Amino acid sequence: MNEEQRKSTSINILAERDKKEKAKNRDFEHVYQPPSLREARKRGKAEVQYNNDFQINERYRNMGRGRTFMIKTYGCQMNAHDTEVMAGILSALGYEPTSDVNAADVILINTCAIRENAENKVFSEIGNLKHLKRERPEVLLGVCGCMSQEESVVNKILKSFQNVDMIFGTHNIHRLPEILEEAYLSKAMVVEVWSKEGDVIENLPKVREGNIKAWVNIMYGCDKFCTYCIVPFTRGKERSRKPEDIIQEVRELAREGYQEVTLLGQNVNSYGKDIKGLNYGLGDLLADISKIDIPRVRFTTSHPWDFTDRMIEVIAEGGNIVPHIHLPVQSGNNAVLKIMGRKYTRESYLDLVSRIKAQIPDVVLTTDIIVGYPNESEDQFRETLTLYDEVGFEHAYTYIYSQRDGTPAAKMKDNVPQDVKKDRLQRLNRKVAAYSGEAMKPYEGEVVSVLCEGTSKKDDEVLAGYTEKNKLVNFRAPRSAIGKIVDVRIDEAHQFSLNGTYLGEHSRAVVSQ
Ligand code: 5AD
Ligand code: SF4
After folding, report:
1. Cα four-point dihedral sign 108, 113, 115, 117
2. Is 226 annotated as a binding residue?
3. Any atom of ligand 2 within 6 Å of the Cβ of 229
4. Of 64, 202, 205, 460, which is most buried by a Cβ count within 10 Å?
5. CATH topology identical between 213-441 and 444-505
6. Are 231 and 214 in contact (CB under 8 A)?
7. How many CB atoms lie within 10 A of CB 335?
8. Measured between alpha carbons, how far is 36 from 457 in angstroms, rounded to an integer?
9. 222 lines ligand 2 (CB under 6 A)
10. What are the pLDDT digits (tens) for 364-387?
């Protein structure tokens, strides 16, 4: 029996086991929709539909009255933003937020599937919550996000985590009211995971975290299918939002006083390509957004394969698009890049970097790197180290390759022992730290503009924020500085942060760093 058959059989066995429950509850059939990675891999030709009429059914409006919710978020900014949407829906249903897990009536765990250790954290979190259901059986516990798109995860939860009441997928978030209702009525676990993406839904309610920086989705899904990556399976095919809807949202955020927006997508460079006849890409979108009066605009994440000259041109104009580009390289060796399915070479990546540097001389480049890919040799790994030197990244997120079921890389034999992978990660991380530290030194004595976000994590008396180039700055200042762009003279550079003296609100005469 192959892996695929084994999985579908185990789902059937579980479904069989739950037949009695189904008989008790007619609706169970309706809400038992488990995921399939095989289905999720398909890319249909059907054009994306846009839904601008989303409304919460009136009959759910009082569902949350007198009840509280808490959402625990793992993973990337996309998940953070999905949490804002779920918080928006729950608030619209009358639920109040709480940060006390013991007081929450609905607990949602928004999960990340990108690496095995991210998944393990979630399973231990669900395990830790078992006592809650014993003490307060009326609490509803839901698992959502990328992990719920994997059938192996759904099986494991069905089998071992009876304390979970609902599992719903990344394409089902807008159905949260219906899913909650089912969970209140049903004794069985409610599983609703669509493997195929649905429409782009525009007017979902949101409760944003804070009023200084905002996430703005510009597209959903990914069609790149890098061989190690689970995201194209968990997030569906690429679907761009319409330019006018994005621009409208950014304008609204500017009016509300937000200081920074980050345009989000798994690969934002593909923006617009899926909309027939649009002929409008990320470069055009950045150009339009640069005309909006909002101080800072970031975008993430860019794939080096389709980073266009138009994008470089717009960033080089130096308006509100910050000169920081996160450009995941993953490896510095051509053979590894090839089996990763990255569609560029070391040479073409370096060529892109030199074009970017030539046109944006003050650009900051950061990256993502995976070490210990199946069969990566010592020499191949060293090419990643030399590429790091050649580019001089100011920071990098580094990972040991993690096998993800259902991805092409999961079928590759791997001859690299785990301790070799760990050693490579440590060697790479030493380089990352050295470059990050070096990049900080020139700031000593300089004045930088900092978007002050609040108090520092370590000291409540100290305020903290980021420069345009994403450097963390700590300084003492009146609380009134929070939410503003302020000038700070840097006194001391550390490896990953800067300490400075507050000079006052940012004056435009100071060249920002
Ligand atoms: N193993 C390790 N790292 C991964 N990433 C994505 N998938 C995997 C995996 N299976 C990393 C890549 C990507 C970042 C978001 O996570 O570096 O750019
Ligand atoms: Fe994953 Fe590659 Fe898509 Fe990024 S571009 S989300 S690494 S498949």
Report:
1. positive
2. yes
3. yes
4. 64
5. no
6. no
7. 14
8. 41
9. yes
10. 999 999 999 999 999 999 999 999
The domain 24-192: what is its CATH number? 3.40.50.12160
Rounded Cα gap, residues 450 and 448, in angstroms: 6
Burial call 386-407: b when 16+ CB within 10 Å, e when fewer: ebbeebebbbbebbbbbebbbb
Question: In this structure, are residues 457 and 449 in contact, taking their beta carbons and an 8 Å threshold?
Answer: no
Number of H helices, E strands in the chain: 17, 22
Placement of tokens 């429950």 in the chain = 21
- How far does the centroid of ligand 2 lie from the alpha carbon of residue 271, in Å? 14
**What is the domain partition of the chain in residue ranges?**
24-192, 213-441, 444-505
What gap in Å lies between CA 79 and CA 112, rounded to an integer? Answer: 8
Sheet strand arrangement including 166-168: 32-33, 190-192, 166-168, 140-145, 106-111, 68-73, 96-97
Query: Does the global pTM surpass 0.70?
Result: yes
Atom of ligand 2 nearest to the CA of 341: 2
Positive or negative, the CA dihedral 230, 75, 196, 330 is: negative
d(CA 231, ligand 1 centre) in Å: 9
Is 401's C-beta closer than 6 angstroms to any atom of ligand 1?
A: yes
Which residues share a beta bridge with 167?
143, 191
CATH number of the structural domain 444-505 = 2.40.50.140
Q: What is the rounded average pLDDT of the residues 331-336?
A: 98
Sign of the torsion formed by the C-alpha atoms of 418, 423, 424 and 429: positive
Q: Alpha-carbon dihedral of residues 265, 267, 268, 274, nearest 10 degrees?
A: -100
With the C-alpha atoms ordered 332, 336, 341, 343, is the resulting torsion angle positive or negative? positive
483 CB within 6 A, ligand 2: no
Q: Is 146 annotated as a binding residue?
A: yes
Q: In the CATH hierarchy, which fold is given to the domain comprising 213-441?
A: pyruvate-formate lyase- activating enzyme (3.80.30)
Determine the Cα–Cα distance for residues 215 and 301; give it in Å rounded to an integer.
13
Cα of 500 vs centre of ligand 1, distance in Å, is 35
Here the tokens at position 14 are 């579980």
**Confidence band for 468, pLDDT divided at 50, 70 and 90:** very high
Question: Which pLDDT band, with edges at 50, 70 and 90, does 1 fall under?
Answer: very low
**C-beta 224 within 6 A of ligand 2:** yes
Q: 409 alpha carbon to ligand 1 midpoint, in Å?
A: 12
Q: What are phi and psi of 256, to 5 degrees?
A: -80, -5
Ligand 1 centroid, distance to 406 Cα (angstroms) = 15
